[in-house]
Amino acid sequence: MGVSMDFQKFQQGEAFDAYEYFGAHLDGGRTVFRVYAPNAAKVELQGDFNGWELQEMAQKEHPGVFELEAENTEAGMYYKYAVTDRYGARVYHCDPYGMLMELRPGFASRIVDRAYTFRDRQWMERRDKNYNRPMNIYEIHAGSWRKKEDGSWYDYEELAQELIPYLKEMGFNYIEFLPLSEHPADCSWGYQNTGFFAPTSRYGTPRQLKRLVDLCHGNGIGVIMDFVPVHFAMDDYGLLNFDGTPLYEFPHPDTAYSEWGTMNFMHSRGEVRSFLQSAADYWLTEFHFDGIRMDAISRAIYWNGDPARGVNERAVEFLRGMNAGLHRRHPSAILMAEDSTDFPKVTAPTEYDGLGFDYKWDMGFMNDTLRFFQTAPVYRPYDYHKLSFSMMYFYSDLFLLPFSHDESVHGKATIIQKMWGDYEGKFPQARAFYAYVYTHPGKKLNFMGNEFGQFREWDEDRQQDWEILSYPLHDAFRRFYADLSRLYLREPALHDGEYHPDCFEWLEVDAADYVTYAWERRASGETVVTVMNLSDQFWKEFRVGLPMLYELTELLNTDWQEYGGNTKKSDQTWKVADEPHKKRPHVLCVDLPPFTARIFKVKSVKRAARKQRHPQGAGR
């Protein structure tokens, strides 16, 4: 109750724990309420505990901070602030630092008992940023992954019981939730926030969300949450003109409004910076989230996301300061940037003038790869290097390969629907597509439904089309995806050292006429070789030059019959011929059906036979 705060740090934008001071803090039967409204003429409090009568709050410890201690309070009670501006207009608001809100369309905040005992000590002690570990992330919208038979949502704990076994079955070791912070409109998917510290009440309470994270950690699954530090919902009960003036947003219309019908945060204000970085810290501290993915970073780097308008230097300073502070407070937590720009050093440390993110979404890889697979085979030779271009810049940042919800909505079509061809013809291409993604360097992210070939675009009001798993092609595709995911998790060569250029090498990247590629991944003393044919032709004994005389075993073939293909699975050991091919001393010959990827592991390396020279005049 007697919590104090370094108010100067708060105003200067250096606070990361402002939520410990502001908001509603319960202690026994009493609760202290504090709210920051420096330009308000008066702030009043009403709630369950006072019969919804307005009680005036007082400025006690710091100017602009209104405070009131209420008796007869308990967790779950509702409350609102009534803020009167200097002209006498009164507006009712939810608590900016409130930790729970009532279900929309209501907007009252609720008192929370924050007590919870986590059981994930071992997980937290061994957690790291996974630079040399696999990250196979399943992106999910909590309300539409599955629904109950009556169409209602699962709560956080019920969702954990359904979701965790599925993640383990499918080979996902991380989950990323679309924003769980409170939002008024279901169709915003959580990206237009009114409660930056409040888990959405659609799915239950903060305690239940903590239980979900705890259960995931107990099953070896990391949890990441989407976080929105750039803009906020313009509902009048939220942050908009909170104290009668633009306290959180820009005062000028040309910079205040975003393209999404929301308000842009004014990151040059210290109070705004402290608010946002405290919200980020809150999710990591209070809920043990393993990381946060920060949305729309390009809109912070450039004014309204437009490079032509120039760099927003104060917002860039905010990102650097927030990331540096979060790294200090949570050294093993993961910070991801959704950034579609070529702004330099997004994942470089802040002490080297970087933005300080751990990973950046590789939007270029996503776009180039999808465009290639949408192209008819006859034109693919001309677009051949769309698939090799990613490795030209891959080592400039630490990239994650995202195929997110944004690629499955708004008329864009789902991943499998994007594949060229008719219904049946899309499946072999989608299998080759994912084989390419999972053997390419970079962490992986895939949106729910894509793992079993859902054709219908995502709709937040409907659960995924689980019934299509009764169709053989979809069930086989789900089996393929699970096998590919588990292969990625268990093979060190597919993730260890992936951000070091010595761990990747093209073996064939000059076969445009055949639309065929080959590459190898090396790490931990092991090597994995992938050969891929993205033409509609069958290539018999296609030749791939290799640097050493390998013996290979086939780990996965996207054309195996069990996945809906035509090739019978075999335990054959593949021997490499001791003869040169394309400036490499040895050659592998493999059959490549149309739209097929084959993944091999080096079983052993043999010494090449020494070439014997015939005596002069001997028979040939």
Write the layout of secondary structure elements.
Blueprint (H helix, E strand, L loop, with lengths): L6 H6 L10 E5 L2 E7 L5 E6 L7 E2 L1 E2 L5 E6 L7 E7 L5 E4 L15 E2 L10 H6 L9 E5 L15 H15 L3 E4 L3 E2 L12 E5 L6 H13 L3 E6 L3 E2 L20 H4 L6 E2 L5 H18 L3 E4 L3 H4 L11 H17 L4 E4 L21 E3 L1 H12 L15 H4 L5 E5 L11 H4 L4 H17 L3 E5 L24 H19 L13 E5 L7 E8 L2 E8 L5 E8 L2 E9 L15 E3 L10 E7 L3 E11 L14
Parallel strand pairs: 10-11, 10-21, 11-14, 14-17, 17-18, 18-19, 19-20, 20-21
Antiparallel strand pairs: 1-2, 2-6, 3-4, 3-7, 5-6, 7-8, 7-9, 12-13, 15-16, 22-23, 23-24, 24-29, 25-28, 26-27, 26-29
Helix pairs in contact: 3-4, 6-8, 12-13
Structural notes for this entry:
- Residues 612-620 have low confidence and may be disordered.
- The chain is elongated, with a radius of gyration of 28 Å.
- The protein contains 13 helices and 29 strands.
- It is of the alpha/beta class.
- The strands form seven sheets. The chain has an eight-stranded parallel barrel with strand order 10-11-14-17-18-19-20-21, surrounded by four helices.
